[in-house]
Amino acid sequence: MNAIQTEHIQLNVGSFCLSDISLHIPKGKLTAIVGPNGSGKSTLLKTIAQLLKHDSGDIYLEGQSIKGLRPKAFAQKLAMMPQSKQTLPNLTVKELIHFGRAPYKKWFDRMNDEDQDIIEWAMNITNITKYAERMFYTLSGGEQQKVRIALALTQRTPVLLLDEPTTYLDIAHQLEVLNILEEINRHEKTTIIMVLHELQQAAAYCDYLLAMKQGKLIHWGEPNSLLSSQFLKEVYHIDAKVMYEDGYPLIIPLKKQQLSTRMHA
């Protein structure tokens, strides 16, 4: 079964549009959406998460049309971590993470033992337990990003969307976040779909890549079969070589001197 399926999605936002997006995202896999800036990666993610309403087409979540899902039922199946520039309340980390249980609660319901166990699990797996009583905005960028992931995990959904989870982080925090997501995927079988800019990281951590350009889905497949010099030229308009080390692709951009040599060869 596919975790996510879209059929002929069309969305117009100002001068930008998603055009005829039909895709199938396998259940229980890690998938990255890649492409140049402004290609529609975040717009597609927000459309799947129902933060943007598409004009036409259908979206299916684990085989069920989302048209028939009430908001709480939808939030029990799919969680989304938006870009880090979105403002969160300045609460303690533990207070903030409690909000992830909202889809399972009525007004004024107290947290029960199951809720507390899930909150503790989410904080443990993201290594933020030691920050439980810290105010959110006293944390570093990398620490805040792990809190955002824990907040999404607390919804305990089978599908998790993340919009640029590694952006603005240094390389150490980028890898820490990706290792956490890989562990969640492998151990919890959570379907994870995320927007990534770093292609080599996407290839190293993800089972599948979706490549977008100008609002269209132009390529889909496993990283090792997809990444090539031709792919990089078509999607990003760059000249680069793709080499392999221990089974993983390495992207090596060509310098101007190399380009000149190739052009005059």
From TrEMBL:
GO molecular function terms noted in the UniProt entry: ATP binding; ATP hydrolysis activity
GO CC annotations on file: plasma membrane
Keywords (A to Z) from UniProt: ATP-binding, Cell membrane, Ion transport, Iron, Iron transport, Membrane, Nucleotide-binding, Transport
Subcellular location: Cell membrane
Residues of the ABC transporter domain: 1-239
Any GO BP annotation: iron ion transport
Domain of life of the organism encoding this protein: Bacteria
CDD domains xref list: ABC_Iron-Siderophores_B12_Hemin (cd03214)
UniProt membrane topology term: Peripheral membrane protein
PANTHER family, per database record: IRON(3+)-HYDROXAMATE IMPORT ATP-BINDING PROTEIN FHUC (PTHR42771:SF4)
Name of this protein: Ferrichrome ABC transporter
